[in-house]
Amino acid sequence: MNLDMREPTIDTLGVLETAGLLRELTAGLIAADDFDEALARLVRIARDAVPDVTWCGFTALRAGEPAGVAASDPGLAELDDLRHGPESPAMSAIGRREMTVAPDLAVEERWPGWTARARGLGVRGVISAPVDVDEQAIGVINLYTDSAGTFTTRHQLTAMLLAEHAGLLLAAVRDRVKQAERAGELDESLLGEGVVGQAVGVIMTQRGCPAPEALDVLRNAASSLDIPLREVAERLVATVSRPREG
């Protein structure tokens, strides 16, 4: 009877812990300015929020090539770095497109070189879960523990949910960065283009503001008047170029 009463409580606590983790992860990653910062926040949050996880790392690949690592603790960064060799739990997870679990490295035989380094750094168990970001970037999140036999089925489920949620958030960060880069390229193009560049120069002179701010003024005017940006620019240039009467 008592056992039956306790089990729902344990399950509820597990759900609440996972919900809290995903909420914290969302808040942390959506505020990141770029992909690398998002990865750094991801590994710190996972380390601190997932029970029994001592360290966390992330291995990233872009276009199939190693593209850097993130580690919650710099001393363990080499374990996530593919330059130290392709044989690792991370590469197994990426290659097979499924979670890789090694609960006790003392008896692990799949990656002898990697395992020796990991044990030398105090790692006793690892879970590696693949993370799909977008068509160009993939990765794997690595959860480490300093106690053998610590990771359970619940940790594996948490790792799976963490990887899926992180993939969505990292994709959003990469998309936001790409849009900002495209906007910057567009701004450069507009500033160097004929009448729009002239109109921006007029606004800069009138308001004493930098070019990007002047371009925003022009865009806001176009939006308010519901007419094309180029037409607003032409009207402004025509107005200031018109000879004054008298």
From TrEMBL:
Per its record, how is this protein called by name? GAF domain-containing protein
Q: Where is the ANTAR domain?
A: 176-237
- Pfam families the record matches: ANTAR, GAF_2
Q: Does the keyword Transcription regulation apply?
A: yes
Q: Respond yes or no to whether keyword Disulfide bond is given for this record.
A: no
Keyword annotations of the record: Transcription, Transcription regulation
State the source organism's domain of life.
Answer: Bacteria
